[in-house]
């Protein structure tokens, strides 16, 4: 059997901190079997170690971009790197950086593999002026391969970049990092019992309208009523105000004209149900793993996702999930088997599915076992890294 040629790849991607999906995924790749199949040179692309200032162009970011380009050139000429793998943004400033990286790599004679970890690229493209749309198409045209996370995006990029090979690769996780201990598993048995701890419903993400935080809060009273109060909700993430969100995700929040009223109702519910709500802020590392291990149900009723790492982490622990069919979620979550799918904005259905899981111990236990096996077989980094290495092999052929 002929051995696969070992390629030399420059991986341009963000590294923690912050501990968000793209940063975690890049770190995971650098610790995966990918580096056994190919020689990988990492070039961090972070503009900042925090989310502060995302989307705003500054002189400092220009200096960082020049540093990224210098490192790519060094790896090209000193290490004979052949391919650049980089992520695509869905914001104008971020995509401008991505385009410069892709076009610069092509000017050096390198192959380019571009990877989108979102699901709104068609909306992003449609909001741009014709000049920037041409820049987007030119950037995508520089790529030999474009990786996406869900089927709808395959169609989008086939239209925008007809000469590129568009392929789908799901997010990855190191499943061993999220296994429950024997004591943690034993503690689940008392959840929801008269003398046991309450059923814990976990939400991880920005506390924002687009992530479904408002819809979840509107569902809280009905879940409390149906479970006789034997529940608690834990929220891990930072609060995003409506004004901040309008600046970032205008298309997500502009479809409703009653958001100010909804926001007031959410604030009232936070006070009214304070004893059943816990806000833990941003978490990472072992503290984050512990939150998942101590939970019974995970929910993320988003209006927009690519493929949520938080949802994947929940599945890995074994949590049944209640999510919306946005991005890849409708493809990878089988309703009634891994959890439940609800329509974005349907807080009544959200409350019903959460309550049904909270009241059915047998269903939760069955889903816990099935979800762990499902992740190990489908999304473990050992599986996804080899899939990605195959994509690189094809791009280098």
Structure description:
Helices cover 48% and strands 14% of the residues. The protein is built from 18 helices and 12 strands. The strands form 2 sheets. The chain has a 6-stranded parallel beta sheet, with helices on both faces. A 6-stranded parallel beta sheet has the order 9-8-7-10-11-12, with helices on both faces. Helix 14 crosses helix 17. It is globular and about 70 Å long. The model has no long low-confidence stretch (mean pLDDT 92).
Core attributes:
397 residues, alpha/beta, 6-stranded parallel beta sheet, 18 helices, 48% helix
- Helix content, binned percent: 40-55%
Structural class: alpha/beta
Please work out how many helical segments DSSP would assign.
18
Radius of gyration: 22 Å
Shape: globular
Please provide the ordered H/E string of secondary-structure elements: EHHEHEHEHHEHEHEHEHHHEHEHEHEHHH
Give the terminus-to-terminus CA distance. Answer: 17 Å
Low-confidence stretches: none
Task: Give a count of the beta strands, DSSP E runs of length 2 or more.
Answer: 12
Average pLDDT taken over every residue: 92
Task: Kindly estimate the percentage of residues that lie in beta strands according to DSSP.
Answer: 5-15%
| Strand order in the largest sheet | 2-1-3-4-5-6
Biggest beta-sheet profile? 6 strands, parallel
């Amino acid at each position: 059997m002929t051995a696969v040629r070992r390629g030399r790849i420059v991986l341009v991607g963000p590294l923690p901190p912050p501990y968000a999906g793209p940063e975690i995924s890049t770190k995971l790749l650098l610790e995966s079997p990918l580096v056994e199949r190919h020689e990988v040179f990492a070039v961090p692309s972070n503009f900042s170690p925090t989310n502060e200032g995302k989307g705003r162009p500054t002189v400092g970011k220009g200096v960082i971009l020049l540093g990224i380009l210098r490192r790519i050139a060094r790896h090209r000429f000193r290490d004979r790197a052949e391919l650049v793998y980089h992520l695509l943004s869905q914001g104008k400033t971020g995509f401008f950086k991505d385009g410069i990286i892709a076009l610069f790599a092509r000017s050096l004679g390198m192959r380019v593999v571009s990877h989108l970890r979102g699901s709104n690229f068609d909306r992003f493209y449609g909001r741009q002026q014709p000049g920037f749309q041409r820049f987007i198409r030119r950037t995508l045209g520089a790529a030999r391969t474009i990786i996406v996370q869900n089927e709808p995006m395959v169609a989008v990029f086939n239209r925008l970049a007809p000469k590129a090979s568009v392929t789908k690769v799901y997010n990855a996780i190191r499943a061993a990092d999220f296994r429950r201990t024997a004591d943690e598993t034993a503690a689940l048995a008392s959840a929801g019992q008269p003398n046991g701890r309450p059923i814990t419903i976990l939400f991880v993400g920005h506390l924002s309208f687009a992530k479904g935080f408002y819809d979840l809060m509107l569902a809280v009273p009905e879940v409390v009523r149906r479970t006789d109060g034997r529940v608690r909700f834990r929220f891990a993430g930072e609060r995003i105000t409506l004004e901040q969100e309008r600046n970032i995700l205008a298309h997500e929040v502009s479809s409703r004209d009653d958001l100010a009223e909804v926001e007031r109702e959410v604030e009232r519910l936070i006070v009214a149900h304070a004893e059943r709500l816990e806000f833990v802020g941003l978490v990472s590392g072992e503290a984050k793993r512990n939150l998942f291990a101590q939970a019974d149900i995970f929910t993320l009723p988003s209006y927009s996702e690519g493929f949520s790492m938080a949802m994947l982490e929940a599945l890995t622990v074994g949590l049944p999930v209640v999510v919306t069919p946005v991005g890849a979620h409708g493809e990878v979550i089988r309703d009634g088997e891994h959890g439940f799918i609800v329509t974005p904005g349907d807080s009544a259905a959200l409350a019903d599915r959460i309550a049904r899981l909270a009241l059915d111990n047998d269903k939760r236990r069955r889903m816990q076992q099935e979800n762990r096996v499902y992740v190990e077989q489908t999304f473990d980094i050992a599986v996804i890294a080899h899939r990605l290495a195959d994509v690189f092999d094809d791009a280098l052929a």
